[in-house]
Design goal:
Blueprint (H helix, E strand, L loop, with lengths): L1 H22 L2 H27 L7 E6 L11 H11 L9 H9 L4 E9 L3 E8 L2 E5 L4 E3 L4 E2 L9 E3 L5 H15 L6 E6 L5 E5 L4 E5 L3 H15 L7 E4 L2 E4 L5
Parallel strand pairs: 1-3, 4-7, 7-8, 10-12
Antiparallel strand pairs: 2-3, 4-5, 5-6, 8-9, 9-10, 11-12
Helix pairs in contact: 5-6
Length: 252
């Protein structure tokens, strides 16, 4: 009986010890969790303070031209001030950069805008302005990328026209015609693409050349060749009708 009792006591003692040992590791884990939560709260609070403190308010706004020019050519200070007052408010770190970028790009002469934060208190804005190339037939202007935009412009420009969505194609042809006409010292002042895909150009001397739908460059090259030999007279490659030269790429 004593031996059994002793064994039983030992078993009970061992079980009690195991329960104490199993419960003790949880205490450090809970402590670490609480410490971690406390540190997270401190960090969040510190970040929020930094983002909202007056030390991070915008004190300087740098607006530059992407072209490298010292001054913007078309966007006025008045337009810039309106945008700045409307959107560039608050802490430098809490600014809604996409919203500010869109606000600048809504200006009629701005093609693109890019923004950069410069700590502690400067917002840098770089603006790319449209470079006007020509007036577009349906209204507005086209830039050197062949993009249509609407803006006020008083200077004289060539006139381009074509079906909706053909701006880039017409600009490309216009640039080719400029190069082709350089040998005779002439420039296109109008380039038109009809709905039937026929091309017509008017030169700065008043001549109108019907280039048709195919082989436009070859037709224009023959015009240049004969123009040089005949001092601008119609020549054997074209027929004259009401001030219009109908160019032929194959006539001899």
């Amino acid at each position: 009986m004593r031996l059994w009792a002793k064994k039983g006591e030992k078993k009970v003692t061992r079980r009690a010890t195991k329960k104490v040992e199993a419960a003790s590791p949880n205490t450090p884990k809970i402590r670490y969790i609480l410490v971690g939560l406390g540190m997270s709260a401190v960090i969040v609070g510190a970040v929020w303070w930094v983002m909202t403190t007056p030390l991070m308010e915008i004190k300087q706004l740098s607006i530059k031209s992407k072209s490298g020019e010292a001054e913007l050519a078309f966007v006025s200070d008045e337009q810039l001030n309106k945008v700045v007052k409307r959107v560039a408010k608050g802490s430098l770190l809490t600014l809604n950069m996409p919203s500010i970028q869109s606000a600048f790009e809504e200006l009629s002469w701005v093609r693109s805008a890019s923004l950069r934060r410069i700590l502690p208190d400067t917002l840098e804005v770089q603006l790319e302005e449209h470079q006007p190339l020509a007036r577009w037939g349906s209204g507005g202007l086209v830039n050197t990328y062949g993009e249509h935009f609407n803006a006020e412009y008083d200077e004289k420009l060539p006139a381009l026209s074509g079906p909706e969505g053909s701006e880039a194609e017409v600009v490309q042809e216009y640039n080719l015609y400029i190069e082709a006409l350089k040998p005779i010292g002439r420039r296109p002042v109008q380039v038109s693409l009809s709905a039937r895909r026929a091309w017509q150009i008017r030169l700065d001397d008043g001549a109108v050349i019907e280039l048709g739908r195919n082989d436009m460059q070859k037709r224009l090259a023959r015009y240049v060749s004969v123009y040089s030999k005949t001092a601008g007279q119609p020549g054997i490659f074209a027929k004259y009708a009401e001030g219009t030269f109908v160019a032929s790429a194959t006539a001899s």
